Amino acid sequence: MNRSTNYGKFFRHPLTSLIQNPLLYPVQLYTIDKRLHFKLDREEQKMAHEDCIFCKIIDGDIPSAKVYEDDKVYAFLDISQVTKGHTLVIPKEHTKNIYETPPETAKELFSRIPVIANAIRDAYQPLGINLLNNNEPVAEQSVFHLHVHLIPRYGDGDGYTPNWITHTEDYTSDDLQAVAKAINEQIKH
Ligand code: 5GP
Ligand code: ZN
């Protein structure tokens, strides 16, 4: 039996469909484009992970002052020590920022934060603590591995000055309802 005849019974090469049916051109080109982008995204993620200083800290390739570690989460002192005990809490699994974080990773990360915050309080008796998570450069993210800052507060002039401008007067309650609705409509689980 002719080999190519037998092969053709089970398999139709995608190029054959493409050449024979020009109506499929846009669909096929879209699929190829999507596949190419998916591959590029994965390559970029791999590169990002290799270049990531926080992944290197987790792996012990860059030294850090470790505050806490388990199989999912690592916490260490921020080198800038905005206030004494300023700690960064990070997931061991590399994720760029909050937008790209799977809910399970967020759950694991945030479940450790009260424990670490209480440990900082017991060690240094701050008057309070700020949690801060920056996402994207406009929001001052400078290291692209998700992290939550725990910044103990000791009073005015302790080193941390959040700049918070209120715009209460600019919004009616209808405006607030409209904004809330716009966000709510985009909720995806
Ligand atoms: P972001 O600006 O992205 O919210 O915060 C990144 C934080 O990482 C900064 O506060 C910076 O001080 C800290 N950081 C950057 N490089 C290192 C490092 O090599 N070791 C430690 N411990 N902290 C770092
Ligand atoms: Zn990383």
From TrEMBL:
The lineage of its organism: Bacteria, Bacillati, Bacillota, Bacilli, Bacillales. This is HIT family protein. The keyword Methyltransferase applies. PANTHER family: ADENOSINE 5'-MONOPHOSPHORAMIDASE HNT1, HIT FAMILY PROTEIN 1. It comes from the Bacteria. Keywords: Methyltransferase, Transferase. It comes from Oceanobacillus aidingensis. A motif (Histidine triad motif) lies at residues 145-149. Its EC number is 2.1.1.-. InterPro entries: HINT, Histidine_triad_CS, Histidine_triad_HIT, HIT-like, HIT-like_sf. Residues 53-161 form the HIT domain. Pfam families: HIT. One of its GO terms (molecular function) is methyltransferase activity. GO terms for biological process: methylation.
